[in-house]
Amino acid sequence: MALNVGDKAPSFKLKNQDAKVISLTDLKGKPIVLYFYPKDDTPGCTKEACNFRDEFPKFDKMKAEIIGVSIDSVESHKKFANKYKLPFYLLSDEKKEVVAKYGVWKEKNMYGKKYMGIERTTFIINSEGRISKIFPKVKVEEHNNEVMEALKEL
To answer: Can you give the pTM of this predicted structure?
Structure first.
């Protein structure tokens, strides 16, 4: 089931890089940038995370919460966050429950080989917990700027 703009964002409870449980309901009342990415410490994922890190003060000024989600372990997230000094939560979805709820766990194809993985996607969730924007198949280069523009429209 695909999610659409206007839908209530599916709830979740996942551990962050410090093994603290974070739930969507804990964050209600502020805009959330929920970005799903394939793998910690890989070129595209590192660039995406560092772009959000570099612009973090601007997102913070907008009272927006940035949250990255992948199926990597809490320990992997901790190393990734520490290595690049990421000032936001990275949530571990090892059971693949949240990636399934958000419809980002998909069949992918690389060099003719099919496999299951996360399709890089960002959801902007408004302060009422509804999806206000979806960025499918994200290209990391200017993505942080696209997200910032979308937040201004809230």
So the answer is: 0.96
